[in-house]
Design brief:
alpha+beta; three-stranded antiparallel beta sheet; disordered C terminus
Length: about 130
């Protein structure tokens, strides 16, 4: 399994104006935020089976599709178009390896660190199981 950990800095909203509801059900908002010295830790770990699992020690926090972090993971993994050669079999190992490599490469380009300056990777650990 591989694990990555980031710190999510705290903030307070000094102002929060809801401008209207969007077609997707979310709201357009304008807010003025200020950073505070508190922070949370977010950990992402690979699973040994397909799917998304969100854990939280606070039972009041939803851990399914009502949680925005869960929905962000769903959207991220659902937004890919993969094109393989017509001569490829359904289980060609080299195509599978190349697809995974391309997912890593493109995801690094899609989510550059400068877009999220408050989220810095503070620790990454990789463990190989053979």
């Amino acid at each position: 399994m591989a694990t990555a950990v980031v710190s999510a800095p705290g903030k307070i909203n000094l102002t929060l104006d809801i401008l209207g509801r969007r077609e997707d059900g979310y709201h357009e908002m304008e807010m003025l935020m200020h950073a505070v010295s508190l922070e949370n830790t977010v950990r992402l770990t690979t699973l040994d089976r397909p799917g998304i699992r969100l854990d939280c020690s606070n039972p009041a926090v939803p851990t399914g599709e009502k949680n925005l972090a869960y929905r962000a993971a769903q959207a991220f993994f659902a937004a890919w178009r993969i094109v393989v050669p017509s001569s490829t079999s359904t289980g060609c190992p080299s195509i599978v390896r190349c697809t995974i490599m391309l997912l890593f490469l493109l995801s690094a380009q899609i989510v550059p660190r400068r877009m999220f300056p408050g989220c810095g990777v503070s620790h990454t650990r990789h463990t190989n199981h053979t």
